[in-house]
Amino acid sequence: MRKILQLITVTILAMCLHSCKKWLDLTPTDQLTDKIVWNDPSSVNLYVNGFYTYLHQYSQFGSAQFSGSLTESLTNTFKYGSYALGHKAGHPNNYVFNPSVITSASVFYDNWSDAYNKIRRMNEFLSSMGKYSSFSAEQNAKWEAQTRFFRAFIYFQLAKRHGETIIYTSLDQMEKDKALSSEQETWNLVESDLDFAIANLPEDWPVAEKGRVTKYAALAFKSRAMMYAQRWQKAYDAANAVISSGRYALVANYATAWKGNNAESILEYRYNVAGPNHIFDKDYVPLSDGYEFGALGTPTQEMVESYEKKDGTKMNWSDYHKSNASRPPYEDLEPRFKATIIYPGSVWKGKVMENSVNGTNGTFMAYRAQPYSYGFTTTGYFLKKLLDENLIDIKGTPSTQPWVEIRYAEVLLNKAEAAYRLNKMGEAREAMNLVRARVALPAKSSGGDEWFKDYVNERKVELAYEGHLFWDMRRWKLAHIEYNNIRAHGFKITGSNYEYIDVDYQDRKFLEKTYILPIPDSELENNSLVQQHPVWK
After folding, report:
1. Which residue of 72, 178, 300, 356 pairs with 488 in a disulfide if CB–CB is 3.0 to 4.6 A?
2. How far from 191 is each of 109, 149, 157, 196, 482, CA to CA, in Å?
3. Degrees, nearest 5: CA angle 425-431-437
4. pLDDT band for position 32 (50/70/90)?
């Protein structure tokens, strides 16, 4: 690891966070030495606020998860339309067609260097607090709790990729070579940091500080992290604490569930036109929105077929898997489909979408017909979820819809999975069926392996395109089964003819050894105590 600089650079974005009434009003701070920071609590708050930007960076609107591409493109549910290499273009396709490109020299969904830069900064903060803070123990504990929440958040990102990590809990440890700690030791740190946050964060902040992490946000995140750690009782207890609090609820309309500032949002990051903002709409709107560089990736038929019908039964798609099919009865599918995907015949920004060859509202382009798919669909669908349907001036106005990092539906599903692992089958069914009831789907009464199969699909459709599926399939060790030697599909629509097509032209692959990513060469070169994982030597 690189040696510490004595000057702490505090670069704070004017950021907007979750608030029922308003967001935090923050003033940017330039370069401050660590001692000067502790002269004024407002300066300390600005330092801590910088850690909140990690929520954006690791969101679907940021670039830290997969260099800006959606990790759903590493499953069979999302297809980038370009074959020319580039992020949000040919790189994701290359990764699923040729996973041997993953090496210790380069992994686009690795975060090793980024994570340790952030961990260094947080440890710098904790070190300077110990040296210079003259504020009350209670106030120090709130700052430390927020910092340790985000340290857990970043170690979680490391652990789900690498398993074993280098644990640094103090600044002096980062000044010398240090060996890898076990996966269990890494999860111990995540759990310990989250427990400290839970014990020291308030249930609510004053109005002027709304948007900061609360006790229940830390509990909700713990329910997620402990599932990855397979500490089922800890995940169950954390989820149950959030549910029992009565503070959160599923909103009635699924189409607003991920939009923030509602009863379902537990932790979110807010944007505004002046900044910070993002470009998600520019990346994914269809050409008919008036922006020629959108629709970089689109949902696949495999994702569409994951949705049940309104009555809870599965649609028989076999009649549509041929070259001369009619339009499928999309209207028969449950509400989450209509809220997630722009399908042929749906209305988007007042236009009836065609998604067809030479279509005016949604135009089809065969994969590889040109290097980049700008504005066109290669699958017959466009992404709807997470886009702002009220944003009309795509070229001139940045995107400002919030990123909801944790919402209540996920916590219910986390409890369901943990309860299943703990043989609490009744509670598992109850928690999952609450999520289904929101969209008027009948309750599932299955048990055992059949229930888990139902749960996998339920989580897939409820949390679709929110950045969970790829990592879930990795932690379940199902990716090498479900994503090996398969192809994604879509529809080529010409007039009233729907032709079921292969949109990949070659098989997708998933290598089992990529369940654990390699230690980067840069770490091996600078740390004599770290050795590469055996499968990557």
Report:
1. 300
2. 24, 10, 13, 9, 31
3. 125
4. low
- Decide: 180 and 1 in contact? Cβ < 8 Å: no
Determine whether 323 is exposed, middle or buried from the number of CB atoms within 10 Å of its CB (0-12, 13-18, 19+): exposed
- The backbone region for 260, taken as left when phi is positive above 0, alpha when psi lies in -120 to 50, beta otherwise, is left
pLDDT at 2: 32
pLDDT at 65: 98
Q: What token pair was written down for 93?
A: 């396709």
Separation of alpha carbons 232 and 250, rounded Å: 23
Question: Of all residues in the chain, what percent carry a pLDDT higher than 70?
Answer: 94
Give CB contacts under 8 A, 24+ apart, made by 172-181.
Answer: 174/1, 174/4, 174/119, 174/120, 174/123, 175/3, 175/4, 177/527, 177/528, 177/529, 177/530, 178/527, 178/529, 178/530, 179/529, 179/530, 180/519, 180/530, 180/531
Q: Are 336 and 466 in contact (CB under 8 A)?
A: no
Phi-psi group of 448: left, alpha or beta (phi > 0 → left; psi -120 to 50 → alpha; rest → beta): left
The rounded distance, in Å, linking the Cα atoms of 237 and 442 is 27
Residue 190: enclosing H or E segment and its boundaries?
A: helix 183-200
Q: Where are the beta strands (DSSP E) in 30-119?
A: 78-80
Q: How many Cα atoms are found within 13 Å in the side-chain-facing hemisphere of 447?
A: 6
Residue among 209, 190, 175 nearest 48 (CA): 209
Whether the Cβ atoms of residue 171 and residue 119 lie closer than 8 Å to each other: no
| H or E, element range at 407 | strand 403-407
Cβ atoms 377, 355 nearer than 8 A = yes
Q: Are 81 and 367 a contacting pair, CB within 8 Å?
A: yes
For 313-324, the DSSP string reads PPP--GGGSSTT
Residues 199-219 pLDDT 10s: 999 999 999 999 999 999 999
At 106-158, the pLDDT tens digits run: 999 999 999 999 999 999 999 999 999 999 999 999 999 999 999 999 999 99
Cα separation, 500 vs 493, in Å, equals: 9
Bond from prior residue into 335 cis (ω within 30 degrees of 0)? no
Q: Is a pLDDT exceeding 50 seen at residue 20?
A: no
